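Before relying on records like the one below, remember that each one covers exactly one chain. Contacts with other chains, cofactors or solvent are not represented anywhere in the record.
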Amino acid sequence: MFKTIPTMLIFNGLLLLASCGGPSQLDHSRDGEVIYDEGAEIKYGKGEVKFVTIGVDRDQESAIVKAKRNALEAVLFKGIPGSNLSKPIVSQQEREASQSYFNKFLEPGGGYLDYIIFSNFAPAHSIKLRGGYQVGLEIGINYSSLQNKLENDKVIKLGI
């Protein structure tokens, strides 16, 4: 009985140390976090939304590229919770029907960059990770122009 208690204490101590480890591990998912800035519509006008987007990659430049792409993917496919764009622009059905269109549109240097009004480094959301970087960007998206482009390209149907 007395031998199992010290063993359990050592095991629990090691478990605690492992869970508190060093810097966060690098996450390569494309499912970036977005943080909405309340009151942005008043400041930036109708048809535009401002929020913070997060990108993670091995170097800062690649993390910035991912943060921008994550921002557009959020606007297109998820919506921005708490904003006037809380629902996505593109339905799941429209996304599946136009997958090759979106693959090309969202590739590095793709057409999605035309709808970014501004992007500024957000230091409060940027950290060095083990094996890479998490970069936060304060970003503005002109979703009204984006919707018009998608409708003109017959990818989505508005006003149904």
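Residues 6-30 have pLDDT under 50 and may be disordered.
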